[in-house]
Specification:
Helix content is 2%, strand content 25%. It is mostly beta strands and 287 residues long.
Length: 287
């Protein structure tokens, strides 16, 4: 059952919660130079950044058949997790109900590897503040995870997050390719006055955003540090596992053992190498 979208005990953030944590800024060497989805039109707005799938196109001609989106350091930059992350978010693509207050927002895009090929089944775990700038730490309002489709695409329905002291407007996300490392980062909105004063703000993480009706539409393409070297052989399960196995479809409530430890499935999914129970807390819990 989807948790109720209320903030019974919202947490009012303050400037020291996130800004006091040690942080490191990582910049890309240049704009992404790729074109994979020829049918996707970019969302343009002043100050926005090029999408991985359309940055190589400068006219109406066809996009390059062999995309090149990496010059050795062009993966999406990481950012700090902050103090408001909660594991075990529900699996869902919408964080709102018809009565949720706030400006409607849809964020969509693709997840690519360093060879500019889409990554299917990538895990994306989103969390954000509500329209008043508060995080729900009691339940799972404005929290949810999803998996990219076969074409590497994702879509999130939410609202524009509110502001709170010390931060500009942003959305948190964790991204993980099957068998890959977790990327923790944040997405930002263009033309926000606080972008100039937020110490964590990184222009490389700006979404392209436009107004549509009474809401907004944003887009962003993630580029994960995945080499995408062809490898037809499935990654074997680590020694010591017993019941859990790749390729198996699990339902919520299923129990397995892995490495001699018992786990309970939280969300229905098909197991992939790299999604072993201790590595994916959104899908498994001990016990």
């Amino acid at each position: 059952m989807t948790p109720q979208m209320d903030n019974s005990t919202p947490h009012e953030p303050n400037a020291s919660d996130e800004a006091s944590v040690d942080r490191r800024r990582i910049s890309r060497k240049g704009l992404l130079k790729a074109a994979l989805v020829a049918s996707a039109a970019p969302l343009l707005v002043g100050g926005g950044v090029a999408l991985a799938r359309d940055a190589a196109s400068s006219g109406n001609g066809p996009l390059a058949p062999t995309p090149e989106c990496d010059d050795g350091d062009d993966v999406t930059p990481p950012q700090m997790e902050g103090p408001y992350f909660k594991p075990n978010s529900p699996r869902r693509t919408s964080l709102v109900t018809p009565s949720t207050p706030g400006v409607p927002l849809t964020v969509s895009g693709y997840v690519f590897g360093r060879a500019c090929r889409p990554i299917s089944g990538a895990l994306l775990d989103f969390w954000q503040a509500d329209t008043n700038g508060s995080y729900d730490m009691a339940q799972f309002a404005f929290r949810g995870h999803q998996f990219t489709g076969a074409d590497g695409s994702f879509s999130l329905t939410t609202i524009v997050p509110g502001l709170y002291p010390g931060r500009t407007r942003h959305i948190h996300v964790k991204a993980q390719a099957p068998g890959g490392r977790i990327l923790t980062t944040q997405l930002y909105f263009p033309n926000e006055p606080r972008n100039n004063t937020d110490a964590l703000f990184d222009p490389e993480l700006l979404m392209n955003v436009r107004n549509v009706g009474n809401g907004r539409q944003g887009s962003f393409d993630f580029v994960l540090d995945v080499a995408q070297t062809p490898n037809p052989t499935a990654t074997p399960t680590e020694p010591g596992s017993t019941t859990w196995a790749t390729g198996t479809s699990y339902r919520a409530g299923d129990r397995v053992t892995y490495g001699g430890v018992a786990y309970r499935c939280l969300q229905a999914h098909q197991a992939h190498a790299g999604w072993e129970p201790p590595n994916v807390p959104a899908l498994w819990e001990r016990g």
